[in-house]
Design brief:
The protein has about 400 residues and is α/β, with parallel strands linked by helices. The chain has 2 domains: about 270 residues, Aminopeptidase (3-Layer(aba) Sandwich), CATH 3.40.630; about 110 residues, 2-Layer Sandwich (Alpha-Beta Plaits), CATH 3.30.70. The chain has 10 helices and 16 strands. The two termini are about 15 Å apart.
């Protein structure tokens, strides 16, 4: 089986590279992936794989039935959206959509799942059960396409017993995979603060309530949320990446300041408590300095927990397929993924695909070593069959 799948992966690599380059050249933002969806549907039709479209408008669910298709159902997921980034790579398949780029590798995930589907479709007499293929929109934008796919019963009819997904990882060389059982990725919440004061002439500070100064004290005070409240055993990040004022100049103090940040952790009880602490610090600080505040904390993706049994099986299958030297243990990550919604519904495994040296994810020059696609489609097909037959 390993030799057969490796042969098929090698045979299909050229087509998968072509698919990936097409997707990379024509990226679309979250929940706007209409042409991407149409392209995926075209490829599934060419493969003769039945599917249903219209999930969250642009999402697709396809099925590959093996022998005894009701015995067990597993799901494989790929996200299809891109990011609002202007690409700076000088390649033939550079994005032609201004300000939009596959800088997080979802073109890789989608082309990989199509390549995996092609392999599995040729081998459907070699396994029992059904493989459900999820092409999911909107991973990069709240509330997350995964949560909406679940609400629209993408995991149902037939019901998936487990789900597997992957993500590109430029820190790993091509040909390698990374896994972590148990807690893997953090929850992610968005924080929006509006600090209100009373603007005026900067040379007359006694006549104003300075929201810029209030904001500086608030940002300093919020550092205690982690350093003085979080348990040392619970990974936590509170960071602020944007601050703007409404008006203002060298000699003008504005009326309002806007601040945006993120809160990430791996414990739901602490997550809720931290929201309360953040709100209290912001409001009390602003009020004590004569101003006021509006606190808007938007609860984002939950933490991602990899099911131990499914992940251990996947690690074993990876070592069989690639060799033990090509399977890496991963560290905890404070980044977030809406795959977490799936993993809280059914057992799941979310692993990393080594894509070679590159700039980091979400950068304007992110790219991959396309040899990684052969590893990707081969292992995902092998793992799927092994998970079904176990």
């Amino acid at each position: 089986m390993i030799d057969r799948i490796k042969t098929l992966a090698k045979e299909k690599l050229k087509e998968v590279v072509s698919i990936r380059r097409h997707l990379h050249k024509h990226p679309e933002l979250s929940f706007e992936e209409h042409k991407t969806s149409a392209f995926i549907q075209q490829k599934l039709t060419e493969l003769g794989i039945p599917f249903k479209n219209g999930f969250v408008k642009t999402g697709i669910v396809a099925h590959i039935e093996g022998k005894n298709p009701t015995k067990k159902v597993i799901a494989l997921r790929a996200d299809i959206d891109a990011l609002p980034i202007q690409e700076e790579n000088q390649v033939a398949y550079k994005s032609i959509n201004d300000g939009v780029m596959h800088a997080c590798g979802h073109d890789v995930h989608t082309s990989s799942l199509l390549g995996t589907a092609a392999i599995l479709n040729e081998l459907k007499d070699q396994f029992e059960g059904t493989i459900k293929l999820l092409f999911q929109p909107g991973e990069e934008k709240l509330p997350g396409g995964a949560s909406l796919m679940i609400k629209e019963n993408a995991l149902k009819n037939p019901d998936a017993a487990l789900i597997i997904g992957q993500h590109v990882f430029p820190d790993l060389p091509s040909g390698k995979l990374g896994f972590r059982s148990g807690m893997y990725m953090a929850s992610a919440d968005e924080i929006y603060l509006t600090i209100k004061g009373k603007g005026g002439h900067a040379a007359l500070p006694h006549k104003v309530i300075d929201p810029i100064y209030i904001s500086s004290v608030i940002l300093s005070s919020l550092q205690q949320v982690v350093s003085r409240n979080a348990q040392p055993t619970v990974p936590t990040v509170l960071s602020f990446g944007k601050i703007n004022s409404k008006g203002g100049a060298t000699n003008v103090i504005p009326d309002e300041v806007y601040i945006e940040g993120t809160f990430r952790t791996m414990d739901e009880e602490w997550r809720a408590k931290a929201h309360e602490i953040i709100t209290s610090i912001v409001n009390s600080t602003a009020q004590s300095m004569g101003g006021s505040a509006i606190v808007d904390i938007r609860k984002g993706y939950p933490f991602l927990m990899n099911n131990e049994e499914i992940t251990i099986k996947s690690i074993s299958n990876a070592k069989e397929f690639l060799g033990e030297q090509n399977v890496i243990d991963l560290d905890l990550r404070m980044t977030a993924e809406d795959f977490a919604y799936y993993s809280q519904q059914i057992p799941g495994c979310f692993y990393r695909l080594g894509t070679g040296e590159s700039t980091g994810l979400h950068t304007s020059t992110f790219n991959i070593n396309e040899a990684a696609l052969e590893t990707s489609i081969g292992f995902m097909a092998y793992n799927a069959i092994k998970q079904l037959n176990s």
